[in-house]
Amino acid sequence: MSGSYDRALTVFSPDGHLFQVEYASEAVRKGTCAVGVRGGDVVVLGVEKKSVLKLQDPRTVRKICMLDDHVCLAFAGLTADARVLVNKARLECQSHRLTVEDPVSVEYITRYIAQVQQKYTQSGGVRPFGISTLIIGFDSDKIPKLYMTEPSGIYTAWKANAIGRSSKTVREFLEKNYKETMTKEESVKLAVKSLLEVVQTGAKNIEIAVMTSDSIVHHLETEEVERIVAEIEKEKEAEAEKKKKPSSAASTSQ
Amino acid sequence: MCIANKATSTDASSKPPYLSYLLYVILAPSFLFCNGTPYSSSSAASLTSREFPNSITTTTTLSLQDFDSSFPTAPTRYAFDDSDDEELQEDTQGQQSIILKYAPSSSARKTLVVGVTGAGSVLLNALNDERKVVGEVVLSGGDAKPSAFPILEFASANFLLLPCNEAVSTEQAFSWTKAVLEGIKNLERLISVIVLPLHIGETWLHDVHLHFNITLCRVIVLDTFTAAGYITAATHEDEPQPPCLRMLHTSAASPVQNMNIYEPPNLAKGLSAAILSHTEIRSIPAYLILSLQESSYGKTLITDETLAAFVDGLRMLGLGASVEYGVAQQQARKLGSKLDGRVDQHHHRLYL
Q: Domains in chain B, ordered, with CATH?
C-alpha cells in the first residue's frame, strides 16, 4: 500500500500519510534515549551515551549541545542531521541577539527549529530531518521550560518526556513517577532512574545536564552519576526488603 | 602449568568379606550404541542442561599462566624464574576447569572441525545435514559464567563438529586447546561397581576405569580474516573479494590443491593459532581455513559469501555439506551485537 506513496516527500497517500515523515520518526527511534525533566526551579536533560570507539575522540560524540548561553538541546536520531539543525539554530540565536538585542526565548528558538523541520517536509528534492530534539532553558521569567520537536515540525511543551530508543518505556515510567515542583535532587534522580530503565550498562553510559534558574548548565561528572545510581540501587533494595517483611510477619503470626 | 585429571572415586578402605556380599556391576547404557540426540541449531541454547547417559567425563583443572602483576615494570626475566612456590602461585591465580562429556559411537578415526566464534561457529550451526549432539565442552571458572560448547557428530561421516558459540579469549586459547584435544583423545570410561552387602546398611562403591581411545586423524579450524588486516602485494583494484579462501596446514598434513596458502607476513591469531601450534607440535594433521569477511563502518559482517567459501573449503577436505542461509542469519544475530557482525541500530554510527 505504502509502496507508491513513500518515495516522494511531497505526495500524500490516499489515507493522508506522509510516509517519508513517518519514516523519519523511525530514524529517531534508532538513536539512543534522551530524557528531559522539568522540576520546580530546575530542568534536567539526561541522555544515554553511546560507547565511544577506542580511537575516537569522545568530545566529538555529544548528544547535548548548547544553542545559546541559556538554551540547551539534546537530540535523538541521525547525527549529521542534528549537526546541521543545531548550526542553523545557533546562527539564529546570534542573529536574534544582534537584531533584537535580546537573547532568544526558549519558545522562540524551539519554534524556529520546528519551522525548519517542517520546511523540509514540504519541499521537493529534500528529505525530512531524521531527529527529534528536547530543548530546555530559562527565560527572563526564571520559569524552567522543556520543549520537544519532531521530524514533522510539531513542537510541544512538556513537564517530562523522552525521545529515541525505548522512549515509550521511559515515558511510561515518567508518567508514573513524575511529581510537580520537584527539587533539583529529585529531578536529577528521576531523570537517572528513568534512563536506568533502558540503559543496561549503568552510570558509565549516562550523561546528565542540569540547568538552574541562573541559566547555568552543569554537566554532572561520571562519579556524581555513579553516586546517584548507587543511591537509587539502595532505595530499590530497601523497597524490596519492605515488601518482604509484611509477608514474613504474616507467616509468623500464623 | 598444572593439569590434573580428577576422577570421582570412593575409596573403600576395608574390603568387604568376599562371600558375604552380592556383587552388582552397574554399567551405564552401552557405549557401543551412540545415544546422541538429533541436533538442531535451536537446541544449542539448551545444551548446558542436557544429560549424557553415555557420558564419559574428563575434568581437567587448569591453572592460568600469569605473571606477577604486583610489579608491572619488573624485568621480563622475573616472569620465568623458577620459584619454589610456583604451585602456590598457581593456586591463587584462579582455576579454570574444562569438562568434556562425550559419548562416542565408536572408536573410529575422527576429524574434528572447530568453528571459531563468528562465521566459523555460525556455519557449523547452520549446516543442513543431520547432526547429533554427542558431547559438550564446558569451560568454567573465575568470575565469568560457564560457557558450553556442543560437540556434534555428522551422521554420515566420521566428523566431529565443535562450534565455539561463545568466544574463547586469547589468554584461554592455549589451555582450552590442550584440554579439548588431549581430552578427546584420552577419554576414560568409568564403570561404577556397587557392592551390596547381605547386611543392610553397608554399601561400598568401587570405581573401575577403562581406557577408551578416540583417534583424531585430522583437525580442521574455520576462521576468518578481513581485508583491512590482510597484507598482500595486490593493488587496490586486485584486493580480494569474498568468497575468498586461504589456508594454513601443519607439516603433517598434505597440501590441498586449489586452496591458496595464507601468505606471510599474515598471521593466524587467537584460538586458530593455538590449535595449529598444538597440532604441529604433536604432529597431528590440521588445516586452518580462513574465509574473507566483509565489514561495514567498522563492524564485521557474516555474509553468505563468507559462509559459501567455507563450504567450498570443507568440500575440498572431504566434508560435503550444504548451508541453510536463513538459519545462518539467525545464528549470526544470536551471537550478539559484538560478534554477529550485523550493523544493528545500537552500533550504527549514523545515529546518536
A: 102-195+207-227+239-340 (3.40.50.10900)
